[in-house]
Amino acid sequence: MPRTYFxxxxxxxxxxxxxxxxxxxxxxxxxxxxxSEQDADLxxxxxxxxxxxxxxxxxxxxxxxxxxxxxxxxEGGDLTIVVGGCLAQKDGAIVAEKAPxxxxxxxxxxxxxxxxxxxxxxxxxxxxxxxxxxxxTFPSALPAKRSVRHHAWVSISVxxxxxxxxxxxxxxxxxxxxRRIGDILTEVQSLVADDVIEVTLLGQNVNSYGRDLAxxxxxxxxxxxxxxxxxxxxxxxxxxxxxxxxxxxxxxxAATPNVMPHLHLPLQSGSDRVLREMRRSYRQRRFLxxxxxxxxxxxxxxxxxxxIVGFPGETEEDFQATLDVVDRVRFDQAFTFxxxxxxxxxxxxxxxxxxxxxxxxxxxxRLEPRVRQHSLEAHQRLVGTTQELxxxxxxxxxxxxxxxxxxxxxxxxxxxxxHRGGREPAFAxxxxxxxxxxxxxxxxxxxxxxxxIRRTRAGRASAAAIARGERWEQPADAPITxxxxxxxxxxxxxxxx
Length: 497
Ligand code: SF4
What we know:
Blueprint lengths: L3 E6 L3 H16 L3 E2 L8 E6 L6 H21 L5 E6 H13 L5 E3 L7 H11 L3 E3 L20 E5 L1 E2 L10 H5 L3 E2 L2 H13 L4 E5 L8 H4 L4 H8 L7 E5 L8 H9 L6 E3 L7 H7 L5 H14 L4 E8 L6 H14 L3 E6 L18 H26 L3 E9 L6 E5 L5 E5 L16 E9 L4 E3 L4 E3 L2 H11 L30
Helix pairs in contact: 8-9, 12-13
The chain binds iron/sulfur cluster.
């Protein structure tokens, strides 16, 4: 029997991407995917240092895995426990000290060494810890295992040259380094040949892509090039920085039909004073001008954002400025956070300026209903329109409904196709359908039955799996995707953001 693995991913899409690469590497070593930790010989925790209480959650999970490991050992077996990702990079030695039953701890730049680390752990008897400051191989060059057929994460750069004072990412992922455009295009072409119809480009600051290679952003050029790939239906990207949304990028989006009309513009605060203290290099006026220009060039584009309430020293006047921007822009969706310090960031040192929790809660409770109302209005505007939906999955809670995404990334539920008694559904995850929106809610819309269906190879494979009563996602024995080409690694950038 081959050994089995289970990966638990915490945090952002970059970690999802890296987990796919870790899965690919484990499969090259002969491991096979297990459905749960209980069924696995190796459990890998890909950690996040950005989310609140990340370390408490990690140690809670490690405590549970310790019991599992002890039970296995009592029965003469074992469980290999691996901790990787951002929290491992930040606290690696501490993880090994606090949880000595862990076998391997590796940082954000060490993924290519995973096979060697596992081999060393076999004989070490103590946690093997490897943390390095800079990577030598882009994770994209490693083999990957995708979780679904029709979609892939494509890393275009790693690291960040900005220094937002609330953010721990630059110290964990290092300075920004971009992949070469030809390498990215070759990777996307081979993904499309392997049934992928949608890619999400990933970077900490995607729209400054290429600045370390060419001295100026090449993001617009990359989008236009991706527009020339036959069979690539949808291109998305995350996360952009408002400062780097140039006219050129907006023009490229408007001129490239497969680049989806959705911009995530992290506002963080509407107050110029707070933006300065956050070291965000745009101001309210610039942000609003960007929104206006976007709406001129891309009138149907959905706008989403992130907002931090209660940054240290935020006054009522500062908060009002945020509310003003929120009311003016009326985002399709806003992810709102109450500020909480991330150890190791400059803002975390401003302990004496932290807001009273009562004030924080009050401000948050005044912001939340507004963003929910705007989101409802955005979904209401869709009612009566016919939308192209990329089918994503059967609903987890209601078997009569399936879910898809509009071009603007709105979540839409629609009636499930008939697949009773082993019948193949008329469409499946990975297919494109059109449907009329009939109802709106805060976080989603509801559509009538699909009026037209465009089958894809991914959709057909998902439909056949559903008819056989199997998982529609990539099966455990699906082949791994070989690593993408990687020519010489670009010279490390020294430009600051
Ligand atoms: S742009 Fe700012 S928030 Fe985003 S990763 Fe870089 S430092 Fe963090």
